[in-house]
Design brief:
This protein has 332 residues and is mainly alpha-helical. It is built from 16 helices and four strands. Strand 3 and strand 4 form a beta hairpin. The longest helix is centred in the last third of the chain and has 30 residues.
Length: 332
Amino acid sequence: MWKTINDILNSIDNFVWGVPLMVLIIAGGILLTVRLGVLQVRKLPLALKWMIKNEEEGEGEITSFAALCTALSATIGTGNIVGVATAVCTGGPGALFWMVAAAFFGMATKYSEGLLAVKYRTIDEDGHVLGGPFYYIEKGMGKNFKWLAKLFCVFGTMVGLFGIGTFTQVNGITSAVNNFFDPSNVHTISLFGMNYSISVVVAGIIVTICAGLVIIGGIKRISKVSEVIVPFMAVTYIGVCLIIVFTHLPQVPAAFAEIVQSAFGLKAVAGGAIGAMTVAMQKGIARGIFSNEAGLGSAPIAAAAAQTNEPVRQGLVSMTGTFIDTIIVCTM
């Protein structure tokens, strides 16, 4: 049964992340980049400045930095470690090139998402700020597209549960714990007709309790925890990567050369250059979107709660998330 389910998921994955969607994602990013005048390059210094400088009198529930950290908390981690490793193993070193290319154009997409989230957000009777794709689809495109907003909610929930959300994160954490404490699965327990390592069960329970304590507190508690954990996590990750890079400095130029050659199929042996390039693009773009979530609509939900009166400002702050997560962290 599990083999059948895995085959079905692989078929869906290959269809969803096929050439048409890759073209759509890149074309959308290129269109926004051109229309915005390559804003991700021109305004990046200002965006990085505003990332840590909060707007004192802005409306909202959390600071702009907290909103950014909340979005990054779901991207820096499994998407960078497991995601990049998977992309390189299945698509070759060239996948990293296309991952960064997708992130560059994705910065324009992320800017647009953050801007729209603040522009079309609403405040409910309890004073909570609500916003995201489901709001700016309905309010920005018109009432006739309310069905599309509802459809986004349905698919967004499914993706959160079965795709880039809980299942993937918990699986990555528990697998790492299992490989460290009980790699041979010597100590097991039977649950729901299957045997699991006790280390997996314990790790899963701990993650569930910790996540529950944070999530039940709503966006304010999530943002407060994220403000502490995300900077620490990013600095630690970058610090460890720098140690590895500097201890292998002579190999770095050759690594970049191999990435570029592999990206364009110049080192292809079987399947031809076009086939190798297509695989690298497919895996790189898919994992890049998995990592930074540009265009998926998750980050704008957090961005909508930011304390700001300027949609453009929050759009720029949101844009830095893709830059940090993929262009810096994934490359490292």
